[in-house]
Amino acid sequence: MRKLYVRHQDASNKGATVVRDDHNNACYLLVGKWGIRHDALSVYAIDGHLLAEIKQTSVGIFPKFDIFFNGQKVGSISKTCGFVHEFMYVKTLKWFITGNLRTGRHHVYNGGQSIMTVTPVNLNGALYNELSINRQSTEPVCICVAAILDHWFRGSSKSGLKKRTSIPGWRLSNGETSFNNIHEKKPNKNKLTE
To answer: Is residue 104, in this structure, part of any structural domain at all?
Structure first.
């Protein structure tokens, strides 16, 4: 099992993303964008050879993506409706994806065999997805699947999660303040609005 690290896509790293292994060696290059129909993300070998692509074929609440490996369509995936735990299916490959878009943790299976595990990690102050992949031959396709899961994770975390704030609960005997009790920030109903 090899571990690969893909940086979360945000405004600071638009364009190309280098996929590295656990020894910090560059293994793949992830290039592209999505958002409108026919947009694509491509996975290249470091020597520049195109290995895999994921192309957006529809837009809307449940967008659909086709997955290509060595120029051949090998599967398709679309977002499903789920409240906490998501179950997705990659058609043709027969991969089941279980996980949680709120936490970003996912497991990919083919039957009872584990294909990949996706875990968000913080490395040197930046957010990455740690991909634990069982077979090196599936890595380019797994990177495509992880990229779309990351895209959906960021979308659900922006819209669906409430921001919570820490409120000091009590002062400890050594002078420190405990921030353990987390509360939702409530609007002040007595405050006059202008």
So the answer is: yes
Q: Assign residue 67 the CATH number of its domain.
A: 2.40.160.200
Give the residue numbers spanning the domain of 43: 2-159
131 backbone dihedrals φ, ψ, rounded to 5°: -105, 115
CB 35 within 8 A of CB 152: no
Closest CA to 37 of 66, 9, 74: 66
Structural domain count, the chain: 1
Place of tokens 């179950």: 87
Q: What pLDDT shows up at residue 83?
A: 55
Chunked mean pLDDT (size 10), the chain, 194 residues: 86 74 94 76 94 89 90 89 72 92 90 94 90 96 92 57 34 44 44 44
Hey, which bits of the chain come out as E strands? 2-7, 16-21, 26-32, 40-45, 50-56, 64-69, 72-78, 86-90, 95-100, 105-110, 113-123, 126-133, 165-166, 182-183
Asked, for residue 70, whether it belongs to a domain, the answer is yes
- Residue 171 DSSP symbol: B
